[in-house]
Design goal:
alpha/beta, two-stranded antiparallel ribbon, about 230 residues, about 30% helix, 5-stranded parallel β-sheet, elongated, binds zinc ion, 2 domains, 8 helices
Length: about 230
Amino acid sequence: MRILDTILWYLAAENCRHCLQKYAEPGLLLCAHCARQIFFFDPTQRCLTCGSLLKNGTCSFCLNREVFFSRAEFSFLYTAAGRTLLKEAKFHNSKRALAYLKTNLRLPNFLNQISYILPLPSSKGLAHFTANALQQHSSAQLLSGVFHLPRKKKDTKKLAQDERFSQLENLILSPKPAIPATSSIIIVDDIFTSGATLNRSARLVHEVWQVPREQIFCYALFRRDALREI
Ligand SMILES: [Zn+2]
Ligand SMILES: [Zn+2]
């Protein structure tokens, strides 16, 4: 009987998506060990504007460019099992990964100041998912589809990541809707890597919609601190 139990357990148990070991709890995505390897963004000891890790007290991101948003915050770090979580949610559309992200979302401190939430276009819709999740915790209004990518002849579903990046360089912002001049805006993406995309989007909102920098905020579901970590 015990052997049969073991066989049944083995058949029911899934592999942890991160370490690929068999684990005993069907319904979860990660084993208990890997579940502890999901790290949240913590704004302490980071740049107050962009959230970069400070080196000798200075932020290389803000030092080296003009920043068009007043503050950026994040939910998870793209490191350890967090990487698996993002990939499962983004590329496999895993319901369990999406449910985990939604339930454990770390809300930005400035969320109650926000009037409008603007998701960036993303090939897998995770930026829109994140914007929706934020909206459920605030009275802000979701403005979908105001950022556009230039039209492409080819099937955009199969865009490589670098191709998407080059497309985002040409991001277009719709004309300003009738919103009060004092409105604060949050631009939402799924991952912040170099910060270039969110800063470019913030620049569009600042220059095209004439929104002061102090009223522009950014949020990404994940923050990637080390570029080499894949
Ligand atoms: Zn594991
Ligand atoms: Zn900074």
